Amino acid sequence: MNKELFKHYNEAFESIYIHPESMDSKVAINLRSLFPKKIKDFDSRKKIRAQTLSPEDFDQSKKEILVMPYKGKFFKQCPGGNQNSACCNYFVLNLGSQCHFNCSYCYLQSFLNSPFMVIYSNIDEARFELSKVAKSMKDHRIRVGTGETIDSLGLDPLTNYTSELVKALKDNSNIQLELKTKSNFVDHLLDMNHYNQVTVSWSVNPEEVVESEEHETATLDQRLEAARKVLDKNFSVAFHIDPVIWHPDWEKNYKRLVKRICSSFKPNEVPYVSLGALRFQTEQAQIMKERFSRTSFVNSGEMFVSKDKKLRYDSRLRSKMFKTIIDEFKSYSRSWRVFLCMESPETWLQTYGDSPRRVEGLDELFVPKPLVNTETL
Amino acid sequence: MNKVLLNSYLTLKTPRSYAWKNLILSESIKGGLGSFDLSLEYSLEESLAYFSKTLSFFSKLELLDEVQKEYDVDVKKYFACFSFYLDLNLYNRIAKVKLKWSNEFLQWVKEKDLNPKDCRTFIYADDEADLNFILDKVSMLKPSKMNGLKIIDLYLDLKAYNMIDESLIKEFKTDQSLLKHLHKLKFKEAFKRDEQLDLHFSKIDLLKNVKLKVIREGDMNKIELNIRAWGPADLLKQMESVQKKIKEIKNAWSIS
């Protein structure tokens, strides 16, 4: 690990707790050798019993690592695939929960109740599950992401979990592993054998939004530079403009973001770009106001309760924002493939004039795949 | 220890006997002791919790304030007796800010049985003057818990953007009318779009008994069509008249 990265983690974390069952795991050994002074007695860890964490506790949870085995099933269907959203057949494999970045809109604020950033130590079991699912669905191409409850690469230089997971790709050519991040921590990936089955994707936003809402993350330029680095090593690259956040200059700023992407990448280098508008659970609204003030971009928009009980912008405003971004991409090249993430069929119709399965270039992503019964894994 | 005060708290809903070690909390024994066995030793927190279990959260806080004048009470332990997890950060914040509330507002908070989670709407407000202004207004209007919390939250949102005129707020005599006003200010762009669409619809020349209206359902605005017909033949005629205007309806929809 280089000095800069060591400094980054050293400043980010205060304490590290290791569950007795995880003592001999590779990640625990690595953490002990890197930060011996931060290792604390497991029994002295703070125990909090709460439905949601207070703003102070939530902030603190980002600074305290807990290494422990995960007792449930790692592999899950993406929660976006419900009756109110068009499903793009995405699966998730969670290797931890919480994130040391600090985005104002992060859904973990209303989702987590643990006072720690948890790293699951039983990576071998996760890899085993991945292989098993791949074999059970060998006639289907499946996309599996590791960035649902933790940034895929935020801690990867510490855990080396990506290098463990890619071992499962060797005999399972139907898996496309997607690493979703807002970091620029890619140097440790560059010499990895990825079997052309790893997509590194960046969640991107205009620089103004990054600065105002995505605290502690890499700048837009750093993310795009990192994307170029992995692309040069034949990784696949994708971008998620998600969440699209309304703010007074949104139109100008999102057009500039598209220009920035289109001037750095060709459409054939980026299999897809996904768009999603800001959305969150109703109970999260208050937490966001407490943690990031009522005047932050995320708290300034007009949010309504939608069919799925989440707060969202007015559907016509969402469509306008999506159309603006899509039209901008298409003005550079018709070949850009842009789809909507976690959006209602109504918004698809208002934006594209059709359902995702009938939009050229996107149809394959939305063909229904068999459900995975995780209980049998 | 103010026995009378404690007695008044503790007998609020369930008159019972009240004792902790050598401290008599109430002179009169009314009703049974239930599962509370006085022959055993209980901590102050357990005793207080037992006797105050029917009180609202804010009445419990008042009781704690009184007892704490003379005794050390472990607040976390006290609330744990109710299987109620108390976030100490939140508790400390509430304990601090409630000192600045007027008696009228405190009365509303108690009457509506606000819990710590409800208080998150306003206890982190930065500007004390702004907060006091709207808390006073809520105390005056005495809205339901839900309306009161919405009024405070919307006001603080709008105030943060200087989008509100206090002198106007003072004029509102009911919580519903104030809420409607604040709602319209907070969601002004969506309201504007809906109103524009309604205006466009009103200009479409439809038969007398056909009405087109914009309705809002959460994050979507929808078209509501209302037809009154005296029979099937008239219904068909009216539906055909709408059919003829569908292009204009589409135009209005796409313009606004």
Question: Would you mind describing this structure in some detail?
Answer:
The complex is a heterodimer of chains A (377) and B (256). With 377 residues, chain A is α/β, with parallel strands linked by helices. Chain A has one domain (3-376): Alpha-Beta Horseshoe (pyruvate-formate lyase- activating enzyme), CATH 3.80.30. Chain A is 34% helix and 19% strand. Chain A contains 14 helices and 18 strands. In chain A, the strands form four sheets. An eight-stranded mixed sheet of chain A has the order 4-5-9-10-11-13-14-18. A five-stranded mixed sheet of chain A has the order 2-1-3-8-6, covered by helices on one side. A three-stranded antiparallel sheet of chain A has the order 15-17-16, covered by helices on one side. In chain A, helix 2 links the parallel strand 1 (15-18) and strand 2 (39-40). The two termini of chain A are 35 Å apart. Chain B is mainly α and 256 residues long. Chain B is 56% helix and 9% strand. Chain B has helices at residues 3-10, 44-51, 57-68, 75-80, 88-97, 103-111, 116-119, 128-141, 145-160, 166-171, 175-186, 188-203, 232-244, 246-255; strands at 18-20, 23-26, 210-217, 220-227. A two-stranded antiparallel sheet of chain B has the order 1-2. In chain B, strands 3-4 form a two-stranded antiparallel sheet. In chain B, a hairpin with a 2-residue loop joins strand 3 and strand 4. In chain B, helix 6 packs across helix 8 (128-141), helix 8 runs antiparallel to helix 9 and helix 9 runs parallel beside helix 11. The longest helix of chain B is centred in the middle third of the chain and has 16 residues, at 145-160. Chain B is elongated.
